[in-house]
Design goal:
about 140 residues; Nucleoside Triphosphate Pyrophosphohydrolase; 8-stranded mixed beta sheet
């Protein structure tokens, strides 16, 4: 099994899409394209965009969501990203809450991902990254 590099984790950004449905907070997970694990929309920083703006862009591209992005991260988590050459690279993801105001049925990666609205507790059981699970369990939108 390939080992993760010992160098510092690469910086990524992620969105934590959320809404209130009948007074209950729900978060949205999407499947990853390669392994179909449940994750949050995330990716690399984007030239010309702040980290929160890039996180909002990832939410649109990966899940068809638009909304109000918070400029202070709710937390961060680390995971190992498998690169095209099979190597693993540690990534540290800063997570920005996104209060969803628009959810489209068509979006750029619609044919490549599934999405799921669920409670933070259930989402924490579905994700594989322990630090992301902990972030979901303590998530309390303002």
């Amino acid at each position: 099994m390939p080992k993760s590099s010992a160098r510092a984790p690469a910086h990524q950004i992620g969105a934590l899409p959320w809404r209130r449905r009948d007074g209950v907070v729900e978060v949205l997970l999407v499947t990853s394209r390669e392994t179909h694990r449940w994750v949050i929309p995330k990716g690399w920083p984007m030239t010309g965009l702040s980290d929160p703006e890039a996180a909002a862009t990832e939410a649109w591209e990966e899940a068809g969501l638009k909304g109000l992005i918070v400029t202070t991260p709710a937390g961060a988590f680390t995971y190992d990203k498998r690169l095209k050459d099979g190597a693993l690279r540690a990534c540290r993801v800063k997570v920005y809450p996104l209060e969803v105001t628009v959810e489209r049925e068509q979006w750029p990666e619609a044919g490549q991902r599934d999405r799921l609205w669920t409670t933070p507790d259930q989402a924490a059981r579905l994700v594989q990254e322990p630090e992301l699970a902990a972030l979901l369990l303590r998530f309390q939108p303002d």
